[in-house]
Amino acid sequence: MPIVTPRLVLRPPTLGDLDSIQAAKEEAWNDLQRWMAWAFDNQRSREAMEHSIRRVMDYQSHAGIALAGFHKINGDFVVRTALDLTDEADVYETGFWVAPKYAGQGMATEAANAAIRYAFGHLGAKAISIGHFEGNGPSRRIVEKLGFQKLRVAYQGATRCLDGAKLDRHEYLLTSPRPLPELDVSWG
Ligand SMILES: CC(C)(COP(=O)(O)OP(=O)(O)OC[C@H]1O[C@@H](n2cnc3c(N)ncnc32)[C@H](O)[C@@H]1OP(=O)(O)O)[C@@H](O)C(=O)NCCC(=O)NCCS
What residues line ligand 1, using a CB cutoff of 6 Å? Predict the structure, then answer.
């Protein structure tokens, strides 16, 4: 750590990042409630963000690795991603959200590509899983760009935090870093 890409520095978030990540979360909130399984009303507050950062600081390497990506030039918070341990040994689940200010610039793809390379290259992962809700076009596009293979559709397997609607969840797996788009990534 940190993981460094052409535009980002990725590392576990600390309490010093609380204000910048919270500001981005507030701005992204509508989309987060639409597409992220954790974005219930009680997760919106600054206190919830503080609690979440404290929890991931504690769980680093026990339950996986939380990552925050910061702009290499100006230090802005850009993207949150993670490598969460699953029930299956050496299989990590990933996901991501981006500060709206930096949306549409390939940042989520770059961060996920780097995190996945780190999982295979440093953590000894044998596979990475990801899922997105029905209708999340940008997320689907990212998953396809990263070379994931579709496993299945969990019919009404997701609950949208925004309104409790049941949505299909599209589930994918990547078993090697080879399909990933080329990216200059290093970690220390
Ligand atoms: C989804 C999200 C992470 C995308 O972040 P981003 O940094 O803008 O994504 P990228 O720029 O790396 O890639 C987005 C891709 O989706 C494409 N895209 C954008 N809108 C789209 C749409 N409505 N349908 C299909 N593809 C779309 C973009 O063109 C781009 O593909 P390209 O590089 O081939 O042009 C961001 O919008 C977000 O935080 N959303 C809310 C949380 C969320 O949905 N997270 C994913 C849960 S798995």
Answer: 28, 31-32, 35-36, 95-98, 103-109, 132, 136-139, 141-142, 145
Atom 17 of ligand 1: nearest residue by CA position: 138
Please name the residues in contact with 13: beta carbons below 8 A apart, sequence gap of 6 or more. Answer: 21, 53, 56, 57, 66, 67, 68, 80
Q: What percent of the chain has pLDDT over 70?
A: 100
Give the burial class of 41: count Cβ atoms within 10 A of its Cβ; 0-12 exposed, 13-18 middle, 19 or more buried.
Answer: exposed
Q: Where are the domains of the chain?
A: 3-187
pLDDT of residue 188: 84
The whole-model pTM stands at 0.97
Question: What gap in Å lies between CA 73 and CA 136, rounded to an integer?
Answer: 30
Domain 3-187 in CATH: superfamily? Gcn5-related N-acetyltransferase (GNAT) (3.40.630.30)
Which pLDDT score is estimated for 14?
96
